[in-house]
C-alpha cells in the first residue's frame, strides 16, 4: 500500500541522511544537507525507486517531521537523530524545568550508574512529553521513563538544543540529574 511505501522510503531516508550516506555514495555537507536530485539519482542507481514526489510526500506527512527541505527545495536533511557528525547550527536554548527520557527497563541499571549517553548518536534525545518518551522507550522493550532535572543541568553548565521537530538534545545526562517516574 501507499502507506507502507512511504514508511519504507522514510526509513531509507533516515539511513542515508542520519547514519550511512556512503551506502549509496551520497555526501552530506557540514550541516547535514544533501542535494535532492543527487539523492534521488543515487537511490535509483541502488535499486530504490525514490522520486521527487515521494520525497516531498515523506517530508510533509512524516509524523515526527523527521526531515526538512531547504527554502528552495533543492536540499534535504534530517532534523535530528544523526550518528554521522554534522553541525545542525542549533542555538543553545533554555529547557523546561524537567524533561523526559524514555528507555527500556533492561537499560535502567546501567543508565542509573553511568547516566544517559548518546550511544551511537550525536546527542541524547529528551522530550517535554511523557507520552512521547514512553513511545521512544517502547521501541527498545518494556518502557521506563526517566525524569531529567533539565533546569539543574543548565544551571551547572550543560547545554540544550531544540531540534526543528521538537526534540530536546543534550550531550549526556549524568545520573545525579535523573530519577525514574
Ligand atoms: C540507551 C527516534 C545503557 C537509551 C526517537 C536508548 C528518538 C543506555 C538507547 C530518537 C545508556 C539508544 C532517539 C547507558 C543511553 N546504558 N543504555 N548508559 N545511555 N542508553 O535509538 O533515545 O523514530 O540511539 O536510553 O523518537 O531511543 O528514529 O536513542 O534506549 O527521538 O525518528 O540506549 O529516535 O526517532 O537508542 O531514540 P537510540 P533513543 P525516529
UniProtKB/TrEMBL annotation:
**EC number(s) from the headed UniProt entry:** 2.7.1.-
Q: Which GO terms describe its biological process?
A: tRNA splicing, via endonucleolytic cleavage and ligation
Going by the entry's taxonomy, the superkingdom of the source organism is recorded as Bacteria
Give the protein's biological function: Removes the 2'-phosphate from RNA via an intermediate in which the phosphate is ADP-ribosylated by NAD followed by a presumed transesterification to release the RNA and generate ADP-ribose 1''-2''-cyclic phosphate (APPR>P). May function as an ADP-ribosylase.
What species is this protein from? Piscinibacter gummiphilus
Pfam families assigned to the protein according to its UniProt record, in alphabetical order: PTS_2-RNA
Alphabetically sorted, this entry's keywords are:
NAD, Transferase
Family named by the database record:
Belongs to the KptA/TPT1 family.
Q: Does the keyword NAD apply?
A: yes
- Which class of enzymes does this protein belong to? transferase
Q: Which SUPFAM superfamilies match?
A: ADP-ribosylation
Put simply, this protein is called: Probable RNA 2'-phosphotransferase
